[in-house]
Amino acid sequence: MEANYGYCDASGDYFIVINTDDCDGCNRCVEVCPQSVLALVVDDYEETVAAVGEAFRKKLKESCAACKPVGKRLLPPCIESCAMNAISHSW
Amino acid sequence: MLTMGIDIGSRSTQCVILEDGQLLTYGNIETGPNSTENSRAAVEAAIHRRDELWGEYRMQLPNTDTSHLRIEDMAYIVATGYGRVVVPFANANITEISCHARGAHWFVPGVSTILDMGGQDCKGIRVNERGEVTKFIMNDKCAGGTGRFMEIIAAIIQLPLPEIGPISLESTKKIPFNTICAVFAKSEAVALMKDGASKADILAGLHEAISARVLALLKRVGIEEKFVITGGIAKNVGVVRKVEDKLGGLKATIPAEPQIAGALGAALFALDRARKKAAENTSRTICSAPGKEAAPDQGLIP
Fold it and tell me: How many domains would you assign to chain A?
């Protein structure tokens, strides 16, 4: 399942996309996220996968701002940490 | 076997009761402030088939008396919707994304894309041939393209909610709206009314803006046949036509009762889980039967 967590408003689209078929629930992205945006959940098909916490789904633009590519860092830590390439950002 | 699904949305609450997977009865009420009372009221509305709030029943129901049914009679109850965690008598809760997909798949087998326009959110869902979610997107940060937006506009135009769809089809002049923000679109509509614009043209302009908004969301998950619209706005023929126009001839299928898709999906998940539970209980009974334990020794008998 390609889960799009986030929102779109007048300033643009802000979605974290998690491919739950690829996610193996290793918890690495949860550990590296400095804002605790990501968490492991049991989805409706009873699989343990990463998801964006309810509290962050309407403020991703602000919550993820500090991790956005700048200088020598090319990728946010969540994307970089994922061995399965299951995470992407829409902005 | 009776199973129940309850969908507590931001604006309306539905309860669906199935008997062995067949629709037995359902109810649709306005969401109240107290979630516990609200969920019980939805059950009451379903068993007594109350229709005073949301118009007549659009689906044929079996001619059986359901007024004696109690919550305790249900083999399994699944709650969904944003209020799903506060249904005190539910056995489990499942997200509305999966439930809407399941419900839409029941109404329209072979559905691929679902647009759910609810009271205060808008969802795009892609499903596989089994009705399982493969992609989803939800926007509940903006009121543009929600049922609440329609309610506000209907109040400004001073027309009952069910009439704004058909009336918008009578539009003869295009009025482009500069915004889809519910607050500013309201001011814009008031200004246009003062200038003497017709209600039909204003409504058509708003429906145009809403459909553009929801399609931008839907494009993120991709649109393929069969395409189904659920949620209260599916009852607004004006929005449905505008969405279809933008899709270049792709027709939208509207379930007979688009608002109950979530609760229906929940009741179907409840049926799965009730059957699983029953099967587990049966196998446990067989394993603990006294004759079974003696079985390995039988080989020693000459």
Answer: 1
